[in-house]
Amino acid sequence: MKYNINIDPKIKIKNMEEHSNVPIYLRFTGDVSEESAEKFCEELESAEDMALRSGQEIIPIIINSFGGDVYALLSMVDQINSCKVPIATIVEGKAMSAGAVLFTCGADGHRYITPNSTVMIHEVSSQSWGKNEEIKASSIEIDRLNQKLLKLMSKNCGKSDNYFIDLVHEKRHADWYLSPQECVQHNIASVIGCPGFEVNFKMDFRFGIL
After folding, report:
1. pTM to 2 decimals?
2. Which residues span the domain enclosing 38?
3. Catalytic annotation, residues
4. Read out DSSP for 147-167?
5. What is the pLDDT of residues 4-49, one digit of tens each?
6. Do the beta carbons of residue 156 and residue 187 sit within 8 Å?
7. Is residue 100 included in any domain, yes or no?
8. Is the peptide bond before 23 cis (omega within 30 degrees of 0)?
């Protein structure tokens, strides 16, 4: 993600390192795990505080992930939903499985995908072993998570509850790979391309009764 910083010549900045955290954005790469989710939540909470202080109106999250643990993903989703600053999501490379769900958590109109990126959607899988009743319990939980995640994606994309459930069923429950154009077609992505920031440091004066 590129950004330009424009500084009013009336402002004398001695040390640009003081402004090295401007603009504020997050980059999530690698697998979704308990450790990466915890780090993500901490970084987003910190980014939210900085954005509220600086007046930055949106926090971009750059995603390049094959996915991973569903429960860890849900903690990340909760952190995004509780954020007081709107979130933009940007796929650079890939957003697969849990990464695809994370992608849809961007604000409407602010889900971006670069031209050569890929999104993949599939159902939650399980490799659990054990007693018969344990396998049955695991199957029920897997079904609950599938319903939850696919309905969450449908809601985030402005679709009916069963929109992605029905599409996954039509795909015979196989991995579903989507091009950027297909992502736009299903409103998973809003825009094909990578956005950028323009940051202006300027001095404004107002004189009068305040």
Report:
1. 0.86
2. 3-7+21-125+173-199
3. 97, 122
4. HHHHHHHHHHTT--TTHHHHH
5. 666 666 655 555 444 545 789 999 999 999 999 999 999 999 999 9
6. no
7. yes
8. yes
